[in-house]
Amino acid sequence: VTESDLVLKLLHKYRWSRHVLLADKRVYGFHGELLAKRLRAAGLTLTVCLVPPAETSKSANVYLGVVDKILKAGIDKGSHILTLGGGVVNNLGGFIAATLYRGIGLIHLPSSLMAQIDAAIDFRQAINHFLGKNLIGCIYAPRAILVDPQLLCTLSLRHMRSGIAEAIKHSLTQSPSLFRFLVENADQIRELAFLEAIVRKTIRLKVALMNSVNGHNDGEFLLQYGHCIGHALETVTRYALLHGEAIAIGMQVSASLAVSMNISQSGLIMDHRLILSRYNLPDAIPQNVSISAMLDAIAYDKNILRNTPRIALLENIGRVHRSKEGSFTRVSWPVLRKSLLRNQTHEMHRRELCI
Ligand SMILES: NC(=O)c1ccc[n+]([C@@H]2O[C@H](COP(=O)([O-])OP(=O)(O)OC[C@H]3O[C@@H](n4cnc5c(N)ncnc54)[C@H](O)[C@@H]3O)[C@@H](O)[C@H]2O)c1
Ligand SMILES: [Zn+2]
């Protein structure tokens, strides 16, 4: 069964409505044209909206541009947004589906590894504000998420590694066995069997956390492991770092924070370094990033409460440190600052970021 067959089945009841295929230009060239052709050949009325393949497409401007086009094309309550692309297109399309007509149908067709294991497997839809990541958004459930790892054959190695960073996040926070699997099989990164295994294992772990988010809020901070610092890095570097690269650094800084606060042993720092290096992911803040700019950006993090950052920290692989309040640790600004400074690279051979 192809993705287009599944989409047609899902839309059968709504075949008289106009539907929207939202994709980024690159993914549309690889996989979208054929999909649109098949859907139209089966009789669906489809409007195609294309956005640039970049994080900057998760913006209020692009949002309004796409909404404009869709409204002018004419939709109704039976219309669906099909998002074909990476996390950017999934998040943008999710926010559009949630807000147009106060909610129309949403079907994700994630095409990057990041999207297949994380961004599309979510109810959180968002766009960015120039002050920070995902600051404008809502909770909205897709009707379906169709994951086909074969789409990954055209994904660049850099984006593949960026996606692996989220699998690494789940391994560090929830699963020592996934940690070992990732360390031992890094040379398989281009193999379909390996990618299918990663997709299955990570989705299972993520869904378990999402269920606990709904229950007693435990998973919420684990899902955000490395993200408080990672999001700040993305903001201050104006997205010169990919999302997965930024959270890789965020996780390494979190390990160092945990050790400095006597929550874990120094082996945790080495474990982080080992798994990140297997996938050539960065583990230090680039030299030319201003730490005080990062602290300013962290002030906009969504998990700050009463002016104190609340961050998931690990005692060991698979074991989060729990305070009385939940699965997070309150970290004071001076301690955070010290950790950021300690984890900034001073090695001359490291790549400087163009920002
Ligand atoms: N809502 C959530 O829970 C959640 C979770 C994780 C990530 N995210 C968000 O997801 C975004 C990052 O996702 P991403 O890395 O997929 O970014 P992306 O959407 O920018 O895709 C990365 C790049 O890969 C290309 N690409 C995607 N699929 C391809 C394919 N099959 N073949 C060739 N090229 C392909 C895209 O054109 C783009 O250039 C960030 O905005 C992040 O905040 C959200
Ligand atoms: Zn993420």
Main β-sheet description: 5 strands, parallel
Share of β-strand residues: 15-25%
Structural class: alpha/beta
The helical percent reads: 40-55%
Q: Globular, elongated, flat, extended or rod-shaped: what is the shape? A: globular
Ranges where pLDDT stays below 50 over 5 or more residues in a row are none
Q: List the bound ligands.
A: nicotinamide-adenine-dinucleotide, zinc ion
Q: Strands of the largest sheet, in order across it? A: 2-1-3-4-7
| SSE ordering | HEHEHEHEHEEEHHHHHHHHEEEEEH
N/C terminus separation = 45 Å
Description:
This protein has helices at 3-11, 25-41, 60-73, 87-99, 113-119, 157-174, 176-184, 192-216, 219-223, 227-236, 243-260, 267-278, 291-298, 333-342, and strands at residues 18-24, 45-51, 80-85, 105-110, 124-129, 132-139, 144-145, 304-305, 308-311, 314-316, 319-320, 329-330. Helix 4 (87-99) packs across helix 5 (113-119) and helix 10 (227-236) packs across helix 13 (291-298). The protein starts with a helix and ends in a 13-residue tail after the last helix. The relative contact order is 0.09. Helix 4 (87-99) links the parallel strand 3 (80-85) and strand 4 (105-110). 49% of the residues lie in helices and 15% in strands. By secondary structure, it is an alpha/beta fold. Bound molecules: nicotinamide-adenine-dinucleotide and zinc ion. Zinc ion is lined by residues 118, 166, 227, 243, 247. Zinc ion binds at residues 118, 166, 227, 243, 247.
